[in-house]
Amino acid sequence: xxxxxxxxxxxxxxxxxxxxxxxxxxxxxxxxxxxxxxxxxxxxxxxxxxxxxxxxxxxxxxxxxxxxxxxxxxxxxxxxxxxxxxxxxxx
Length: 91
Prior knowledge:
By secondary structure, this protein is mostly helical. It has helices spanning about 15-25, 25-50, 60-75, 75-85.
C-alpha cells in the first residue's frame, strides 16, 4: 500500500471549490487504493487460513512464506502504474 500516496495536487487553487475539484479529479487513485487494499486483504485472509491448518513450521516454509510476502507487497505497484496511465491515449 506504500506505493500509492494520496495527496492533494500542488497546483490546487486555494478555494473550497478548487479543493473539492482536485479531490474529485483523483477518483482513479482512490479506486486503485481500494482495489489494492481489497486484494491485499483477501491474500492476508487466505494466508492466515492456510497457517491455521499447519501443525508446525520449518525454515523452508518460512522462506516460502517470505517469497509470498515479496509477491504480495508488489501488488500496489502495477495498480499505481495503471492509474498513472489509464487516461493516456493508446498509440
